[in-house]
Amino acid sequence: MEGMDQAAARARLDEAVATLRDRAGGGPVGVLGWSLGGMFALLQATTGNVDAAAVYYAALDADDAAKISCPVLLHLAETDEFDPPEFYDGFVTGLQAAGTEVEVHTWPGTEHSFANRDVALHAPDAAAEAWSITVGFLRDRLAGGR
């Protein structure tokens, strides 16, 4: 994470969104990410070129939240070693103040990475339910419920 070229990552995401939009015939494109990937998904949403964002245990500051206009789904752990609840609260408040649709799920008894089956913190039941919500959210925002 520390050695990552963030500008290059953002450029690749711009290219990916453009490619997907082209393949979708100009149709809607969403972003999905976990943790650091979730942060980059949200940064992509600040550009105005995506139609929905679903992220797990990630947020931006309130100033960046004001730049997001697409619907946002947040899955948060009850305990997060990387960010305090106030950070997430500020992000959600910033989204709401901007009039952005936001749906938040905080999963009781979970920690950061609860949806990652490759780590000891994996919470299979919460992860499965979160994934079901994520699929429905993206389907409803990007495919009109189809």
Question: What would your notes on this structure say?
Answer:
The chain is an alpha/beta fold and 146 residues long. It has a single domain (33-142), classed as Rossmann fold (3-Layer(aba) Sandwich). The protein has five helices and four strands, in the order αβαβαβαβα. It has helices at 6-23, 36-45, 62-65, 85-97, 124-142; strands spanning 30-34, 52-56, 72-79, 102-111. Strands 1-2-3-4 form a four-stranded parallel beta sheet, sandwiched between helices. The chain is globular, with a radius of gyration of 15 Å.
How would you summarize the topology of this molecule?
Layout: H1 6-23, E1 30-34, H2 36-45, E2 52-56, H3 62-65, E3 72-79, H4 85-97, E4 102-111, H5 124-142
Helix pairs in contact: 1-2
Number of strand segments: 4
Structural class: alpha/beta
Helical amount among residues, as a percent range?
40-55%
Shape: globular
CATH superfamily: Alpha/Beta hydrolase fold, catalytic domain
Strand content: 15-25%
Strand arrangement in the largest pleated sheet = 1-2-3-4
Provide the CATH architecture. Answer: 3-Layer(aba) Sandwich
How many individual helices? 5
Largest sheet: 4 strands, parallel
Order of helices and strands: HEHEHEHEH
**Number of separate structural domains:** 1
